[in-house]
Amino acid sequence: MKKNYIIFILTIFVCFFPLSLEAQKKPTIMILPSDNWCEMRYFMTTYDNQGTKVKTPDYQLAFQQDTEIGPVISKIGGLLTSLDYSIKDAEQEIRRINLKTAEDNMTFSKTSAANLVESPLDLLKRRIKSDILIQISWHLNKEELGRSVTFNLEAFDTYTSKRIASSTGTTMASQDPIPVILEQAVKERIAEFDSQMTKWYVEQQTDGREIVLTIRCWDNWENDLETEYDGEELTDCIQDWLKQHTVSGNYNLTDGTETFAQFEQVRIPLFDERGNALDARGFATELRKYLNKPPYNITSKVMQRGLGEAIIVLGEK
To answer: pLDDT tens-digit profile of 281-312?
Structure first.
């Protein structure tokens, strides 16, 4: 009897477990041409990173002048949408950003008195707030029966820029348009690509999203991170808060002085208590509010670099 009961329970589990996975929320995705693709087609721009000239893809120019990238992204986006991913339209968002004169700082990096920089891609990722950035590149090969395409599809965690999935290959020779050839090639490999991204997202739900948190002090603040509150140095108080608010208390203090603390591999929940997506700024803001209360009563400013890095500067706004 007991054996039959165990078999019954296992049968129910096997039947409903795939349904629970299917019902899981899929990550949001943004699709862009790769840096190499933009470089090869001269869709690059230069911005000033504190005196250093840095080249970065000019996505707006690519979408305006290239006849292939739009349809290619549309085809790949359609495949991913059919797998229940939520696609953020990078082309439309770029147009919206560039219509605002306030976003002129995309062309230079010195955006604040603290001299903190944010690249145009970081700004774009922060505005769109996708979980995954997919980059596509390809080049043509001349064949006797037409042309083939060698392509590279890569997915990156937008918070850490770590590669989480990849697929590459060369298509069969064809007379079809490039977007159609690439769609067929990606369709043949989409199951494995989807599996890699799904594995990463499940790990994020279990282990938390990885961010970097930096604590700094304004030079006119009378205190520092060694100032004691109720017998503990401020750095230790901040670590106590992190232990309580990170997933499984996971974080690393990788560098620190009396005026500076760098926390890396800080694992935060994907969503806050209200069910909203949580990023580095949101997490840092909660710490800022905590430090603004007794016994600390510290006024501080939160600044953001991309989605995955936040800086709290102590002493004033």
So the answer is: 999 999 999 999 999 999 999 998 878 999 99
At 95-110, the pLDDT tens digits run 777 665 444 444 443 4
Greatest CA separation found in the chain?
A: 79
Dist CA 201 CA 207 (whole Å): 10
CA 188 distance to own-chain centroid: 26
Q: How far is Cα 213 from Cα 239, in angstroms, rounded to an integer?
A: 11
Q: How many CB atoms lie within 10 A of CB 158?
A: 26
Tokens of 172: 């069969």
**Ranges in the chain, pLDDT < 50:** 1-3, 5-23, 101-116
Angle between helices 90-98 and 120-128 (to 10 degrees): 110
Specify the DSSP element, H or E, that contains 240: helix 234-245
Give which of 286, 282, 233, 283 is closest to 261, Cα–Cα: 233
Neighbours of 226 (CB within 10 A): 13
Look at residue 27 and give its three-state secondary structure.
coil
> SS3 for 9?
helix
CB 266 within 8 A of CB 254: no
Residue that has been written with the tokens 């706004």 in this structure: 317
Sheet order of strands, 86-88 included = 86-88, 28-33, 132-143, 146-157, 163-170
